[in-house]
Amino acid sequence: MNRKKLQKLTESLTKDCKHLFRGFDKDNDGFVSVSEWVCGLSVFLRGTLEEKMKYCFEVFDLNGDGFISKEETFHMLKDSLLRQPSEEDPDEGVKDLVEITLKKMDRDHDGKLSFTDYEAAVREQPLLLEAFGPCLPDPKSQKEFEAQVFKDPNEVSEV
Ligand SMILES: [Ca+2]
Ligand SMILES: [Ca+2]
């Protein structure tokens, strides 16, 4: 497998996950190194719920301060909702959704989501893992990706 093909496969795996690379980019230098990429992928494909929660939380915490704020929630939910045909005032609908979501997930009622809030909510309701937008691949494209990439381990190690 050549580099181009791998790139293409990765693109198709991650096409719905636009925040993906922030989750991969552990040292926040704006680039995803090979080791970060491999590490990110292994969470993607083989990660435990714990690892996936950490990963998604990092993706959702847009400014990296350790909390998912109301503004960040608004921003992300707006992004994921705009694809649908919208009502008269889409912002109002999003605001309602932000309130509902935060109310549901903010366990200590400080108006923002810490990882502890998020973790508790997800353990109760696994669907909340991707509450603020898709950041993990769907099982079908994941399977296709694995089938292609792990066909010949020797080739992959050259990448
Ligand atoms: Ca934040
Ligand atoms: Ca909180």
Automatic annotation (TrEMBL):
GO terms for molecular function: calcium ion binding. Residues 12-47, 48-83, 93-128 form the EF-hand domain. This is Calaxin. InterPro entries: EF-hand-dom_pair, EF_Hand_1_Ca_BS, EF_hand_dom, Recoverin. Keywords: Calcium, Metal-binding, Repeat. Gene3D superfamilies: EF-hand. The keyword Calcium applies. The keyword Transferase does not apply. It comes from the Eukaryota. Transmembrane segments: none annotated. SMART domains: EFh.
